[in-house]
């Protein structure tokens, strides 16, 4: 290679090659990016944030889109924290916000409950400590990941936008984390 340092500066070749972009705050990621992720996904949409609350605010037609995707054969899953769990209460004490973690979870549950019974959207509760500190959202081979910092709410924490490019890379490691949480979670029972 004639200019190896110049090529390395432009082309990602290491462990970070799966990183599309990085945002200092999840809220700094444009709504249009989230809309494209949700709209373009055809096989899998996994929402493994502890509350997933912000999605319903930012995407007014989310219920209709998810119902259509599920009916067309896409797997649509929501992994939520249990609003009545001790873990949730501890997070509320850390965040000290008026719109509590349990309230944000209940808002997501309310939206999910309104989906048609035939929508085939799955929802489970996770009580795992590893869930509350990390939000992972999968849209086929693309994945926003938010590691939650100390007492900050999700929108104030940083976000990585990943693309699957290799086996056992960042994408696979976060996907495996979500699958472990999903396998240990219990189904949400709607009335």
Task: Tell me about this structure.
- There is one protein chain.
- The protein is α+β, with helices and mostly antiparallel strands and 191 residues long.
- Helix content is 40%, strand content 22%.
- It contains eight helices and eight strands.
- It has an eight-stranded mixed β-sheet, sandwiched between helices.
- Strand 5 and strand 6 form a beta hairpin.
- The protein is globular and about 50 Å long.
- The termini are far apart.
- The mean pLDDT is 90.
Question: Can you describe this structure in just a few lines?
Answer:
By secondary structure, this protein is α+β, with helices and mostly antiparallel strands.
What's the β-strand tally? 8
Low-confidence stretches: none
Biggest sheet, strands in spatial order?
Answer: 1-7-6-5-2-3-4-8
- The outline comes out as globular
- The pLDDT mean sits at 90
What percent of residues are in strands?
A: 15-25%
Number of helices: 8
Structural class: alpha+beta
Major β-sheet annotation: 8 strands, mixed
Helical amount among residues, as a percent range?
A: 25-40%
Features:
single chain, 191 residues, alpha+beta
Give the secondary structure arrangement, pairings included.
Elements: H1 4-10, E1 19-23, H2 31-40, E2 44-48, H3 53-58, H4 62-71, E3 75-81, H5 86-95, H6 101-114, E4 121-126, H7 129-132, E5 134-139, E6 142-147, E7 159-163, H8 170-184, E8 186-187
Parallel strand pairs: 2-3, 3-4
Antiparallel strand pairs: 1-7, 2-5, 4-8, 5-6, 6-7
């Amino acid at each position: 290679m004639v200019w190896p340092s110049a090529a390395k500066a432009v082309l990602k070749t290491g462990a970070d090659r799966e990183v599309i972009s990085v945002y200092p705050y999840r809220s700094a990621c444009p709504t249009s990016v989230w809309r494209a992720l949700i709209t373009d996904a055809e096989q899998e949409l996994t929402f493994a944030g502890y509350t997933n609350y912000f999605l319903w605010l930012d995407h007014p037609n989310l219920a209709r889109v998810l119902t259509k995707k599920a009916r067309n054969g896409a797997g649509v899953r929501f992994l939520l924290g249990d609003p009545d769990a001790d873990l949730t209460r501890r997070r509320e004490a850390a965040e000290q916000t008026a719109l509590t973690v349990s309230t944000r979870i209940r808002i997501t549950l309310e939206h999910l409950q309104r989906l048609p019974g035939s929508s085939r959207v799955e929802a489970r509760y996770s009580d795992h400590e590893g869930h509350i500190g990390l939000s992972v959202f999968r849209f086929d081979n693309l994945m926003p990941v938010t590691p939650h910092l100390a007492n900050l709410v999700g929108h104030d924490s940083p976000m990585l936008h990943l693309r699957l490019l290799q086996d056992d890379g960042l994408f696979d490691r976060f996907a495996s984390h979500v699958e472990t949480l999903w396998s240990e979670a219990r189904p949400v029972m709607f009335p």
